[in-house]
Amino acid sequence: MLSTAAVLADCAFYVGERTFRPYARAPWMGTIDDPEIIGHLRELGGDFVCVPFGAGSETPFGPEAWAALMTDAPERPIHGPAGDEDWEVISHTEDSITLGLDYPEDSIVRRLERTVSGTAGAPILESTLTIYPRKAGAISAGLHPILQLPEGRGRLSLEAEFAFGLVHPRQCSNEDAQEFSSLASVPAAGGPIDMSNVPVGVPNFSVQLCGMKGPVRALFLDEGMGVELDWDRELLPSVQLWCTDRGIDGAPWNGEFRGIGVEPIASAFDLNTRLSARPNPINRRGVATALVLDGEAPVRLRHVMTAFAENKGE
Q1: Would the pLDDT of 87 be above 60?
Q2: Sign of the four-CA dihedral 26, 273, 303, 284
Q3: 3-state secondary structure string, the chain?
Q4: Cβ–Cβ < 8 Å for 269, 114
């Protein structure tokens, strides 16, 4: 664990006699100290938390149903103070660590605390984010595990059940189909792509799986190893899949990073938290795109990552 953005920078799961490291790690991790580059990008990889989730854009984009809602200046820093600041270590033991971060006075959030714990004798990692509100209001939020992308096309298999899926508005226009019902056939320029088996040969592609009905399972076919991500879907009802395959230039990326974010969220994609809190094409269909804070009771977001070996007999 790092104090910067409370990033889980590395994690090894021991499954039987095998060691398995499924999380992505940026090749520049630990080498950048430029404060102009936000914390989670200086140490990109593993798992971190986002309150609010995303930032939004300077200019509208995508289908009119989305572009018309993009009226707010982008939030800075991206993914909120949680994804940028140095957290304070509150306590730690051999198998658990808790970090805390106070939020600015003008935020509806007063404080965050993040606990990450291993499980003795089992390949299970449990994380809990506690959000202490300052006042009542709505804010987007999300968790940001990033898995490695295999070099071979389609060699990471993803399983997820959801009510409906939407392609990120940045990647479609009024004339393009945006909605899908299966990861195996996702609308894209040039024809449908199979996001149930990644990478897909596209440098950057993001979708939101809305109304999640269960955990996400990811199987690395070449290793015969996988992980299952489970969380409280009543609070975070969607997952954003953010897949980048050397697709981002500029510092610190420089066309080097490969990974797929499997990100439980209460948000409309990674758009502005104000847009997520207002009526939008996702929450109008009954899928929450923000957390509602009552100003008093803390909100706890728990997620569990469990590693497993493929059962060849299944």
Answers
A1: yes
A2: negative
A3: CCCECCCECCCCEEECCEEECCECECCCCCCCCCCCCCHHHHCCECECEECCCCCCCCCCCCCHHHHCCCCCCCCCCCCCHHHCCECEEEEECCCEEEEEEECCCCCCEEEEEEEEEEECCEEEEEEEEEEEECCEEEECEEECCEECCCCCCCCEEEECCEEEEEECHHHCCCCCCCEECCCCCECCCCCCECCCEECCCCCEEEEEEEEECCCEEEEECCCCEEEEEEECCCCCCEEEEEEEECCCCCCCCCCCCEEEEEEEEECCCCCCHHHHHCCCCCHHHCCCCCEEEECCCCEEEEEEEEEEECCCCC
A4: no
Amino acid type, 164: F
Dihedral angle of Cα 146, 257, 7, 293, to the nearest 10 degrees: -60
> What does the alpha-carbon distance between residue 99 and residue 115 come to, in Å, rounded to a whole number?
6
CA distance 4 to 121: 29
pTM of the predicted structure, to 2 decimals = 0.96
Task: Tell me the pLDDT tens digit for each residue of 151-173.
Answer: 999 999 999 999 999 999 999 98
Give the CA dihedral 104, 106, 111, 116, nearest 10 degrees: -70
220 DSSP β-pair partners: 156, 225
pLDDT digits (tens, 9 = 90+) for 216-273: 999 999 999 999 999 999 999 999 999 999 999 999 999 999 999 999 999 999 999 9
Please check whether the domain covering 13-309 is classified as CATH 1.10.1040.10: no
Give the number of other Cβ atoms within 10 Å of residue 314's Cβ: 4
Neighbours of 152 (CB within 10 A): 10
Distance CA 211, CA 233 (A): 8
Q: Which of 120, 107, 86 is nearest to 2 (CA)?
A: 86
Single-letter amino acid, residue 112: L
Per-residue pLDDT, 314 = 45
Locus of tokens 């572009």: 67
